[in-house]
Amino acid sequence: MYQVDISPDAKTVLNYYVELCLRDNGEDCALRLLDSYDQGISYLEETPEIGCARLAYIPRKYRVLNFWPHLWLVFQIYTKESTVKIEYIIDDRQNYGAFNKKESCKAEFSACGGCCVPVAHV
User: What is the model's pTM?
Assistant: First the structure.
């Protein structure tokens, strides 16, 4: 069994989408999003290889797992430590092609929201 850790950046994005679901669609939608996230975490704890090995513009060191319409967990597997680290959550409706640039400059990534937070709501 793997331990799953989530980065502060990914937590921020998850919280943003939960609040967005709550505001736009009500408590039931926000709870379904959290349930779907929890299910994704359970999958990663048991079988981290379940995620896709490739998604356009995502560096090879990452795997991805879709857990909600348009939302993807971007993670790395650390086999020796039996750990999965969720680095980012991306929205595939956004231009995440800038991911490579943002990934190489993580300090700016959390400050500006990068490709993970919809531009219309920033």
Answer: 0.79
Separation CA 93–CA 108 (nearest Å):
21
pLDDT in tens, 76-116: 999 999 999 999 999 988 877 666 555 544 433 333 333 44
The three-state DSSP-derived secondary structure of 13-81 is: HHHHHHHHHHHHHCHHHHHHHHHHHHHHHHHHHHCHHHCECCCCCCCCCCEEEEEECCEEEEEEEECCC
Q: Please state, in angstroms and as integers, the Cα–Cα distance from residue 2 to each residue in 16, 63, 72, 115, 118, following that order.
A: 26, 15, 19, 28, 31
Q: Which two tokens stand for residue 58?
A: 């995502």
- What's the average model confidence in pLDDT over 25-44? 97
